[in-house]
Amino acid sequence: MLLDILRLKMYFPIRRGVLGRVIGYVKAVDDITFSINSNEVYSLVGESGSGKSTVARCILKLYEPTEGRILFEGRDVTRTRGRELLEYRKMVQAVFQNPYLSLNPRMSIADIVAEPILEHTGVGKDEAYRAALELLERVGISRELARRYPSSLSGGQAQRVAIARAIALKPKLVVLDEPTSSLDVSLQAQILNLLEDLYSEYRMSYLLISHDLSVVRYVSDRVGVMYLGKLVEEGYTENLFENPLHPYTQALISSIPEPDPAYGKLNRRITLPGEPPSAVSPPPGCRLNPRCPRFMDLCRREEPPVVEVEKGHTVSCWLYAKV
Amino acid sequence: MGLNEIASVLKLIKSNPLSMLGIIIVATFIVIGVASPYIAPYPSDAWGYSYNLETRLLPPSPRYPFGTDEMGRDLFSRVLLGARFSLIIAVGVVSIALVIGVVVGLTAGYMGGFAGMVLMRLTDMFLAFPPLLLAIAFAATLGRGLFNVIIALALSWWPWYARLVYIQVNSVKNLPFIDAARIIGLSPVKIMFKHVLPNSITPVVIQAALDMGSAVLEAAGLSFLGIGVPPPTPEWGLLVSQGWALINSAWWLSFFPGIAIVVTVVGFNLLADTFQEVMDPRLRSTMVMRGM
């Protein structure tokens, strides 16, 4: 295992008044366990507010988790600091959704890509900039552009620069937080192809955060489905897409548009009534119970256990539990 | 500020006569401030080292354009040299206040937490006093002298910059490129100075440059009250104050230094208005509509 997330919880306190009294918590991530293997693309899917980005930010150590542990290559990195944190940072990098906002507008493209190299390796300036230019060339950014500033790049180019920065330290895991969702469709394919090429070239792992299920299906080895801070289902991509078990996953997958209208009628569209409830006071029992089409009385009373239905395919739903 | 903004400032200055006037005044002030020891017609009069009883209190004439003072010194030379002291004070006050303000605002804004709260409450405490009153208190405690005037004014001035920097930092620090810098593993100090500061400093620096007019005015105020620069320094406020006693017989003694103060302050204010128009997108669009 490259990365293990064990019973991770991230609660954000809601404060009120002058003294900042805590009046409640947003339970953005509530007891999640999963693992990412070496050289694997793992995707987290779910609607906005399901907590998938929060998981990513915990892994990137931008948030200090409320509870739970994060193991990287077997070592506990949950509260790691100083020297050890720097070592961890070298191995875990990220690409964000908005490429313009993730590049410092006051730095040239070459500066941006050379920065991590200068920070972590003992090489001199010349060496670092030569490496930066090579990386930029690898992702398809010419030498002429390297002297320019982010504002003069197109969205696709800016995202390529962000990718070059992320792979500059040859990380073992790259967190891709909606890397294509702010790009045009034609550019999305280019960026995805670039990411795939780099993936096999550098032999790293990706954690892809996305709500675009067609992209997820196309690139991932395994998929985890999140709903309101919980991981409701996890499995190998084909199993999960061919045979979704959780009512939420079924609804999610039935919402993927069918490119060929001839097959359009095969899948009936499942719609869940209402909207996801607030993460401040989630419903008792199964989080989906107020919206679930296959709701049973038990779902409101007790949280469903995690059931392994087939090898590597787990679901957290009472329908599959042997009571 | 990017090239586009600079270009639009220049365009605005060219098209607006008042902006043009502002920039001419400020440029003249700076040139005179730098060159006055070399261009003053009577340099020793300017510094106040000489006296000549035969030329006492002469009204303005071609030989003495601003007249002479009670020691027979050429007032024109003294007013010219006064620009240098005003410039030194203005630049000194604003840069010291800027350094303190940036350090306090940046630390409080980026680090936050308890230390940040303490720093900002301290800033608020200073902001609660009228700045001139605070400057008077500092100046009176420190005693007279050019350096003490600068310190006194800077101490009453920095909280404004600290606030401004703090607000800017708060709007920048949550942008994804700051997260990216953290993920790379940069230290908080590096992130603050390399990533946060360059992206929040522009409005602060512009504000500071434009505040120099107010610094000139307040320094003159301190000198006028007798707690600023000591005589015989030809500081404008001091010249006005010294001429005050003879205002009935020799009006020029207070008049010309007073005019110098007014013109300089107005020049900086005109420039400030120009920048404000450029910075405010709503005003900018109306300027485009007016064809400016």
Itemize the secondary structure elements and their pairings.
The complex is a heterodimer of chains A (323) and B (292).
Chain A: E1 3-16, E2 21-36, E3 41-45, H1 52-59, E4 67-72, E5 75-76, H2 82-91, E6 92-95, H3 109-120, H4 125-138, H5 143-146, H6 155-167, E7 173-177, H7 185-202, E8 205-210, H8 213-219, E9 222-227, E10 230-236, H9 237-242, H10 247-254, H11 297-301, E11 306-310, E12 313-316
Parallel strand pairs in A: 3-8, 3-9, 6-7, 7-8
Antiparallel strand pairs in A: 1-2, 1-4, 4-5, 9-10, 10-12, 11-12
Helix pairs in contact in A: 3-4, 3-6, 4-6, 6-7
Chain B: H1 3-15, H2 17-39, H3 43-47, H4 75-111, H5 113-127, H6 131-142, H7 146-172, H8 176-184, H9 188-196, H10 202-210, H11 212-224, H12 236-244, H13 252-279, H14 281-289
Structure, described:
The complex is a heterodimer of chains A (323) and B (292). Chain A has 323 residues and is α/β, with parallel strands linked by helices. Helices cover 33% and strands 25% of the residues of chain A. An eight-stranded mixed sheet of chain A has the order 6-7-8-3-9-10-12-11, sandwiched between helices. A four-stranded antiparallel sheet of chain A has the order 2-1-4-5. In chain A, helix 3 packs across helix 4 (125-138) and helix 4 crosses helix 6. The model of chain A has no long low-confidence stretch (mean pLDDT 91). Chain B has 292 residues and is mainly α. Chain B has one domain (9-40, 67-289): MetI-like fold (Orthogonal Bundle), CATH 1.10.3720. In chain B, 75% of the residues lie in helices and 0% in strands. Chain B contains 14 helices and no strands. The radius of gyration of chain B is 22 Å and the shape is elongated. Mean pLDDT of chain B is 84; it is low at 283-292.
